[in-house]
Design a protein that fits this description.
This protein is mainly α. It is 66% helix and 0% strand. This is Squalene/phytoene synthase.
C-alpha cells in the first residue's frame, strides 16, 4: 500500500502525548465527544478498557467526519485513510503473530499509521480478536452517507424507517458486535439483542441531535415519518419546535426506538436468563440505560426534541448506569 497519496489528517494537531499514549488519547476523546460511552468504561475488565476506548473513539471519529470537513471529497479521503489504516493494523498484527510463532524479534516490524486511534486499535487487535469486517462495515456505512450528500444536501438522509434501520445495523449495532467480540462473547441471543439495541441507540441519538442538524439544514427524521405528519423540513430549519406536526413526528420516531429497546430486553427472557443480562455482558448492554433515560425525558417534554431536558446529560445518569449494572437490566 502506497503511503503519501493523501494526508487527510496532515493539518490536525495530533499531539505527541496522543502518539505516546494512544489509549489515554482515546479515553479523553470519548469523554469529550461521547460522555455516555465514557460512563460505561468501568464496567469492562480493566485489561480491556483501553481496547474499549479505541473502538468507541474509532466509531465517534467516523461519525464526526461529516461535520469536520469542508467538502465531501475530503470526507471520502478520511474514510479511505481509515480503510487503509485498519488494513495496516490487521497486517501488522498478523506479521507479529507469525514472527513470534517462529521466535523472530518483532521490534523492527511494520507499524500502523501515526494516529492515536489507529495505534490504539492496533494494540487492541494484538490483545483480542476483533473481526476486521465489522470495522469495514462501519466505514462503508459512513461512506454511503457521503454518496447521499453528493446528490442533494437537503434531502433527508433516510427516506424510510427501513433505510434508517439498515444504517443503524451497520453502525451502532456493529459497534456493539465489536464490543461483544472484545469480551469474547459469542451468542446468537446477545447478537440479536445488540442488533435491536443499536437501532434504538441510533434513533435516540438522532432525536437528541435534531436541533443541531436542523441548524445545519439537515433533516434526520425519515421522510416517511415527517410526510405522514405534514412536517416541512424547511420550516424545521427555520422555526424548530414551532413547526407544525414536528412533535407528532418525533413521537412516532421515538416509538420506533422504544420498540427496539423493548425487543432487546425481551431477548434476555429467553434461555433461562430471567430478563437479566449475564454478568460478563453487562458492560455492552448498559448502553441501553442512557437510551431509556433520554426517551423518558423526551416524554416528559411532550416530545419536544428541542427541550433542554432532552439535550442535557442529566445528573442522575451515572446513578442509573450503576443501578442497571447491579440489577442486570437496562
Amino acid at each position: 500500500m502506497a503511503r503519501g497519496k493523501s494526508k487527510p489528517y496532515s493539518n490536525l494537531n495530533l499531539t505527541s502525548i496522543g502518539l505516546t499514549n494512544p489509549n489515554a488519547y482515546c479515553a479523553d476523546f470519548v469523554r469529550k465527544h461521547d460522555y455516555e460511552s465514557f460512563l460505561l468504561a468501568p464496567f469492562y475488565p480493566k485489561s480491556l478498557q483501553g481496547a474499549y476506548f479505541a473502538i468507541k473513539a474509532f466509531s465517534v471519529e467516523l461519525a464526526m467526519v461529516q461535520d469536520n470537513v469542508s467538502n465531501v471529497a475530503l470526507g471520502k479521503m478520511r474514510m479511505q485513510f481509515w480503510r487503509e489504516a485498519l488494513k495496516d493494523c490487521a497486517e501488522v498484527c498478523i506479521t507479529h503473530k507469525r514472527s513470534k510463532s517462529i521466535g523472530l524479534n518483532v521490534t523492527e516490524q511494520g507499524k500502523p499509521p501515526r494516529h492515536p486511534i489507529a495505534l490504539a486499535l492496533h494494540e487492541a487487535m494484538q490483545r483480542v480478536h476483533l473481526p476486521l469486517y465489522h470495522f469495514k462495515r462501519l466505514i462503508d456505512a459512513r461512506v454511503c452517507l457521503f454518496h447521499a450528500l453528493d446528490t442533494e444536501l437537503h434531502t433527508p438522509t433516510h427516506l424510510t424507517i427501513d433505510s434508517l434501520t439498515s444504517h443503524a445495523e451497520s453502525t451502532s449495532s456493529t459497534v456493539l458486535y465489536l464490543l461483544l467480540s472484545l469480551l469474547s462473547i459469542s451468542s446468537s441471543t446477545m447478537s440479536h439483542a445488540a442488533s435491536h439495541l443499536g437501532c434504538a441507540q441510533t434513533i435516540s441519538t438522532l432525536i437528541r441531535a435534531l436541533p443541531f442538524h436542523a441548524k445545519h439544514g439537515r433533516m434526520v427524521i425519515p421522510a416517511e415519518v415527517t410526510g405522514k405528519h405534514g412536517v416541512r423540513q424547511e420550516e424545521v430549519f427555520r422555526y424548530g419546535p414551532q413547526t407544525q406536526g414536528i412533535e407528532d413526528a418525533v413521537f412516532e420516531f421515538a416509538t420506533v426506538a422504544n420498540d427496539h429497546l423493548m425487543t432487546a430486553r425481551e431477548m434476555f427472557k429467553k434461555e433461562g436468563m430471567g430478563g437479566k443480562v449475564p454478568q460478563e455482558a453487562r458492560g455492552v448492554f448498559l448502553a441501553g440505560v442512557p437510551i431509556a433515560n433520554m426517551l423518558g425525558e423526551l416524554e416528559k417534554a411532550n416530545f419536544n426534541a428541542f427541550d433542554g431536558r432532552v439535550q442535557g446529560r442529566g445528573w442522575k445518569l451515572p446513578l442509573l448506569v450503576w443501578a442497571g449494572y447491579y440489577k442486570g437490566m437496562f
